[in-house]
UniProtKB/TrEMBL annotation:
It is an enzyme of class 6 (ligase). This is Glutamate--tRNA ligase. Catalyzes the attachment of glutamate to tRNA(Glu) in a two-step reaction: glutamate is first activated by ATP to form Glu-AMP and then transferred to the acceptor end of tRNA(Glu). Keywords: Aminoacyl-tRNA synthetase, ATP-binding, Cytoplasm, Ligase, Nucleotide-binding, Protein biosynthesis. It comes from Psychrilyobacter piezotolerans. CDD domains: GluRS_core. InterPro entries: aa-tRNA-synth_I_cd-bd, aa-tRNA-synth_I_codon-bd_sub2, aa-tRNA-synth_I_CS, aa_tRNA-synth_I_cd-bd_sf, Glu-tRNA-ligase_bac/mito, Glu/Gln-tRNA-synth, Glu/Gln-tRNA-synth_Ib_cat-dom, GluQ/Sye. It is found in: Cytoplasm. Its EC number is 6.1.1.17. One of its GO terms (molecular function) is glutamate-tRNA ligase activity. Residues 4-321 form the Glutamyl/glutaminyl-tRNA synthetase class Ib catalytic domain. Residues 335-495 form the Aminoacyl-tRNA synthetase class I anticodon-binding domain. Belongs to the class-I aminoacyl-tRNA synthetase family. Glutamate--tRNA ligase type 1 subfamily.
């Protein structure tokens, strides 16, 4: 019978939750779910100086927002807990000492001063920094004396001096490291806390992790982990080192060049479906050149060997396009409810909006979700429906002629004799209409005005657009007028007339 596939994500709660955490979590979850296995969350909080409860909560909240839920973890329990490393503290000392007893690790009593001087010498000699094995050959008597004297120590892994350590990576094949170039890694620090390396290996083994899927930056550490598995006599998991997310210049993604906090994407109003879809495109293809898919579709077609090792570019423009596709597919009523808070923040919609106000908002969102890339972006494009007092844009000296021309055309649109006549005619038609107007009724009035003027559409629609929206292009006039109604449309025209003395 095949062994159950078990994967994990193991973030450190030391700051905002990172997009890279969600990226790696997605592939771990898909690997487990595709194969009927289990996906767990482990909190690696051994760095007590930087760990915060708030950061841990944000990890929980953002991963759940993205539907990257876990079968086992600190908040849901499981048979392999506890799932916070700080609650497993006693285990690490036990296993570090087990390696000492087996001769696979040793006590190191080197002081900070000695280690600093060692690094200075290595730097002066242009050698790679690393521990020189000074305490590796201490006799049992010397060790006992130092322990008896209460000297501070760390426990180091005893790496082999010769040969190679070979990583058998699912994506990369065999990756080889010369053992004599790897120093003896600290496993247990002077304060009794484990390093990442010891805690990671011990926990992965005890929690039955079968596939370690993590970022490629951990490749250099993997030989140390492999040596620990060998030293303990444990079966090794499969290693999968995912390509790093990269900025447009192909450097590792960083907050200096890209927003990396999941909180940013949540607050900007990206849909969870859009974020998951985008992360699923990072170095991966679901097949058939399909770019838009759901989490369920991603899991259903998942094959870890289809991951490409070329560094995936974290392109915000592409994310916007992907998110827009999911906004268009989203149930309109659901999208309206989700987007409401952004309209409330801008003062467009009241917190306790009634049914009529929500219906209007739904119409606005239905129109704006075609160009918008986020829910926050929906509200940012909505001024045309909610702001009744405005001015025409003005040109500046810094603008090029190309930038100035459409603004100048907009100002000219309310100065010509034919244009003014069209505005006045439309006002008369509108004054005789009902307060609430259908799209068909507004279209009929606009066509009637065009026919009555006997001129081209530019001398009718452009001036009306100028006095009703203040913009030279954008939403269809019949949509704007039918949404804001008769009274607000007339008030807008009157406001523009007072500002620019149109007629």
């Amino acid at each position: 019978m095949c062994k159950e596939i078990r994967t994990r994500i193991a973030p450190s709660p030391t700051g905002d939750p990172h997009v890279g955490t969600a990226y790696i979590a997605l592939f771990n979850l898909a690997m487990a779910k595709k194969n009927g296995g289990s996906f767990l969350l482990r909190i690696e909080d051994t760095d007590q100086t930087r760990t915060t409860a708030d950061s841990e909560k944000q990890i929980f909240d953002t991963l759940r927002w993205l539907d990257l839920g876990w079968d086992e973890g600190p908040d849901v329990g499981g048979d392999f807990g506890p799932y916070r490393q700080s609650e497993r503290f006693d285990l690490y000392g036990k296993y570090a000492n087990e390696l000492v007893e087996k001769g696979e690790a040793y006590y190191c009593f080197c002081t900070r001063d000695r280690l600093d001087k060692l690094r200075e010498r290595q730097k002066a000699m242009k050698k790679a920094p690393g521990y020189d094995g000074h305490c590796r050959s201490l006799s049992k008597e010397e060790i006992a004396a130092k322990l008896e004297a209460g000297e501070e120590y760390v426990i180091r892994l005893k790496m082999p001096y010769d040969g190679e350590t070979v990583i058998k990576d699912v994506l990369r094949g065999e990756v080889r490291f010369e053992n004599n170039k790897i120093d003896d890694q600290i496993l247990l620090k002077g304060d009794g806390f484990p390093t990442y390396h010891l805690a990671n290996v011990v926990d992965d083994h005890l929690m039955g992790i079968t596939h370690v899927i993590r970022a490629e930056e951990w490749i250099a550490s993997t030989p140390k982990h492999i040596q620990m598995y060998k030293a303990f006599g444990w079966d090794m998991p499969e290693f999968v080192h995912m390509p790093l997310l990269r900025n447009a210049d192909r450097t590792k993604i960083s907050k200096r060049k890209n927003p990396v906090s999941l909180n940013y994407y949540l607050e900007e109003g990206y849909l969870k479906e859009g974020m998951i879809n985008f992360l699923g495109l990072m170095g991966y293809s679901v097949g058939e050149n399909k770019e838009i898919f759901t989490l369920d579709e991603f899991i259903e077609t998942f094959d870890i060997t289809r991951v490409s090792l070329g560094g995936p570019i974290f392109d915000l423009e592409k994310l916007g396009w992907v998110n827009n596709q999911h906004m268009r597919m989203k149930d309109l009523t659901e999208l309206t409810e989700m987007s409401k808070r952004f309209f409330v923040e801008r003062g467009f919609v009241s917190e306790n909006a009634d049914e009529k106000e929500m219906k209007t908002l739904e119409r606005v969102i239905d129109i704006l979700r075609e160009p918008a890339t986020t829910m926050k972006g929906l509200a940012a494009l909505a001024d045309i429906y909610y702001v009744d007092e405005f001015k025409l844009p003005e040109t500046t000296e810094e603008m090029s002629n190309k930038e100035k021309k459409p603004i100048q055309r907009l100002h000219n649109a309310i100065k010509g004799e034919d244009e003014i006549k069209a505005i006045k005619y439309f006002v008369e038609k509108l004054e005789g209409a009902n307060e609430e107007l259908t799209v068909e009724e507004v279209k009929a009035m606009l066509v009637d005005t065009l026919e009555a003027m006997g001129t081209g559409p530019g001398k009718v629609y452009m001036p009306l657009r100028a006095v009703i929206t203040g913009q030279g292009k954008g939403a269809e006039l019949y949509n704007v007028i039918s949404i804001i109604g008769k009274t607000r449309t007339l008030a807008r025209i009157q406001n523009m007339n007072e500002q620019y003395k149109i007629y």
